[in-house]
Design brief:
The protein starts with 20 loop residues before the first helix and ends in a 9-residue tail after the last helix. The protein has three domains: 109 residues, Fumarase C, Chain B, domain 1 (Orthogonal Bundle), CATH 1.10.275; 203 residues, Fumarase C, Chain A, domain 2; 74 residues, Fumarase/aspartase (C-terminal domain) (Ribonucleotide Reductase Protein R1, domain 1). The strands form three sheets. Strands 1-2 form a two-stranded antiparallel sheet. Strands 3-4 form a two-stranded parallel sheet. The protein has a two-stranded antiparallel sheet with strand order 5-6. The protein is mainly α. 61% of the residues lie in helices and 5% in strands.
Length: 473
Amino acid sequence: MRSLAEVSPPIALGALDGRYRGAVADLVDHLSEAALNRARVRVEIEWLIHLTTVGAVPGVRALTADEQAQLREIVAEFGADDIAELAQIERETVHDVKAVEYYLKRRLPAIVGTDDATGLAELIHFACTSEDINNLSYALMVQGAVHDVWRPKAAAVTRQIAELARDLRDQPLLAHTHGQPATPTTLGKEFAVLAHRLSRQLRRIDAQDYLGKINGATGTYGAHVEAVPETDWVAVSQSFVESLGLQWNPLTTQIESHDWQAELYADVARFNRILHNLCTDTWTYISMGYFAQVRGQGTVGSSTMPHKVNPIRFENAEANLEVSCALLDVLASTLVQSRLQRDLTDSSMQRNIGTAFGHSLLALDNVARGLAGLDPVPAAMAADLDANWEVLGEPIQSAMRALGARGVPGMEQPYERLKELTRGRRITGDDLREFVRGLGLPADVEQRFLALTPQTYVGLAPRLVDFLDVPAE
């Protein structure tokens, strides 16, 4: 049997780079191995520019605006040839960050001239440990992935859910608590609850800090100070990190502590879990007949049962959200730990960030497509409401309690009287109205309950939808 590992072009091992590539491809620009190397190139270039601009090493000339632009063009034009060259260098160095340093030193003479290149080349990776470059690279990568790819999709799905909530704000729905018929609500209000929960998590994610450091092998600026004692290296470090759009972390070991990553991944995982809740609820509404999946009927629901339209978008989303959460959880719990001043556990662990976000992004794509294919079925919801008149026992006994508290006679034991009527059996509208007429309620209250139906007993549910405040794009 022919080995599939020998097939060209290479076959993807994982689903994200194979079957689902189209849904997650935008993350490649931010969280792939190639994106990591491009970010490293960027950080090394910006460090060189910064050192010469602020005069951190006296006697070294500043780079001209044109030289700076040419250096930054290396990042802008980073592509397949550069990826291959870095891979070739790394095979010699057996060190990925050192390969980036040598890669840039090859290009420097053509930009600054041969005479100056020898000296300026020594400021590439000056006083840096690999983690100085890596932590800043990952911060920029994750920040870009969240802001440019994941967050826009998450916000769009949240707005889609909010729009569904507003469209269905008045649609009566028999609620179920503990799987049993309960106080009616509206379908819109229930989706508004989920949109509201997701919106809160997006606001937390929007407020996330992305930290960085550049302070040497154990976070002491030891090499910096001994090499150039007259420079304020703390100020140089802070200004450089902040110039990248990151928040400076003044106290670290060799690694930036990754606490911000743990915070972010916990929030994204919580968003995932709320979205998972939406998937299971929507799946259940579909199974109850409250939604029909009638759009996009070119699809095949079952390979053998022609009548079926399976809720596969929501099931697929559930699975991918679970995978994403598992990865985000282990990232959050592992990255905050490091033995003494440094171990390499985080290095391997962080290479799974893209996979964690990829499965979440794939789930968002499925949820968006699943929601777009739903049509509510008011008749099915009305039928369930009409079959459960006993849910009106709650407002009737509550009204009797209020009347009893005011001293109205004949209102004794309201809960027990409604319990005797409704518990363990179905009643009809006629049964309930006959019961109401025998309660001795004030005329206005009696008329209110004679007119009440399960469909109209939705309280303030439609109005509550107005409290939705969904983040913008």
